[in-house]
Amino acid sequence: MDLSSYLADMKNLVDSELDGVLPSDGSVLCEAMRYSALAPGKRIRGILVLESFRICGGYEKKVIPFACAVELLHTFSLIHDDLPSMDNDDLRRGLPTCHKKFGEATAILAADGLFALAYEIMSCKDTREKIDNNGAVLDSIERISLAIGPGGMCLGQCNDMLSEGKNITLDDLKNIHSKKTGALISACIYCGARLAGAGIKQIEKLEQYASHVGLAFQIKDDILDLIGTSRELGKNPGSDEKRDKATFPSIVGKEKAAVMLENERTLAVSALEEFGEKAEVLSSLADHIVSRTR
Amino acid sequence: MDLSSYLADMKNLVDSELDGVLPSDGSVLCEAMRYSALAPGKRIRGILVLESFRICGGYEKKVIPFACAVELLHTFSLIHDDLPSMDNDDLRRGLPTCHKKFGEATAILAADGLFALAYEIMSCKDTREKIDNNGAVLDSIERISLAIGPGGMCLGQCNDMLSEGKNITLDDLKNIHSKKTGALISACIYCGARLAGAGIKQIEKLEQYASHVGLAFQIKDDILDLIGTSRELGKNPGSDEKRDKATFPSIVGKEKAAVMLENERTLAVSALEEFGEKAEVLSSLADHIVSRTR
Q: For chain B, N or C: smaller number of CB within 10 Å?
């Protein structure tokens, strides 16, 4: 299978569905929501939902509303993280950040709008008809909420900011990122599996995969922030160093970080063993996350 | 029935449940979430859920998770609306606003955390067991998401800010507030009824009540902003005038606004006719909204 063209197809699918679910009523709010949500993202979270669903036997693209929802939620978090009072970033996905383009107030509300829209999509009748299992839909909504809330992404971002300029341990850093990035990635994998009707054992294995992929993703992000260019990344590199932020390379060194990265990739891939060939895409996705240049 | 002591009991119930659902892990994030969510609010939205549930035959306090959720969502919106880039308010519910107390970044994230927590509470297994109707739970989640998202509260707040300093018509103003305040109030009433298993006709009547109560609520808010004191209001009065914001009194005059307010109250109460004595609390709540001094 040609993974890169398969991933491109999946990304295009998510992009086109996002375009369809985002309202366009001519308001500034909707314009800002569309601007950020349709900016060229990698759509890794959406693809994780689709693939986890597929390898657990889910039929066709019925899970696409959840793939869109996690991408909307990811964009919500990027807009808020980029704000002047937080990471104060000017560039995102190769474009001026939402607040640079539309002003802070509109950016904050556009993110909130994406947040609410994600939940509308997950709970609406059309999605329920597609999935035909209200219990699984509610389990997924609950899991995603836990991943975002005060035990997940919001706490991770808060602790990440509080850690700036401080000496923290490798375990502290892992803990921050397991909440800030890992929780939503795990939730994506969980939702795909749960919505396909997977059993507990399958879900467990996939969650193992997700936790290693999530960590690999963050280690790679930190390495790219150190060595990438803004043209490649679509955001300004060196921002961790500028803000005196602990990163995997800054704590363990660049070489050891690369070893950790490879180790997480291996662990991610081996968690997929029992899925056999069906897991080819998720397995290659782990390679892709490790070798990407943006 | 002594309405004020009944309302005080309901408010205490919501307050004590909120205290129980808000995490307290010692993090700054949770401290900020608790600070804003447990500040002395009127809990009108939570009480609307409880009462709408009760008069549609809902059993006991099974709907309390939804009453908490709408209060968390209301607090989320207050924290973001108070931010320097939006309404820039220093005082809320008699206390310094969340960003004054914890800084902007933590305030933004605390609000986001409340947002996610609300959805976790609405979708969790405990709530589902209480309600025992997953379809109704999902209908309610969908309706609340619509009330908050880009067709509801977020759009209302965005348009409200954009209207500052502009001449707008009475219809424009009604439209802004039907989205900014009215949509969530209607959703509260809808959820209570839907979760109690009410029929379409009952829900329609209650939604009529909600739309009039929502408008009455906003007209009264505008009047209080004009004539109230910060001690009574728990927030700084005169902020509409300061920001050159159109309000009901500024567009139609103080006397005509008072007439409109009374008119909305009457319409709200008459929508409740077929519920008879059971609607006593909702009816008195309309009176209370009109006569309140904060």
A: N
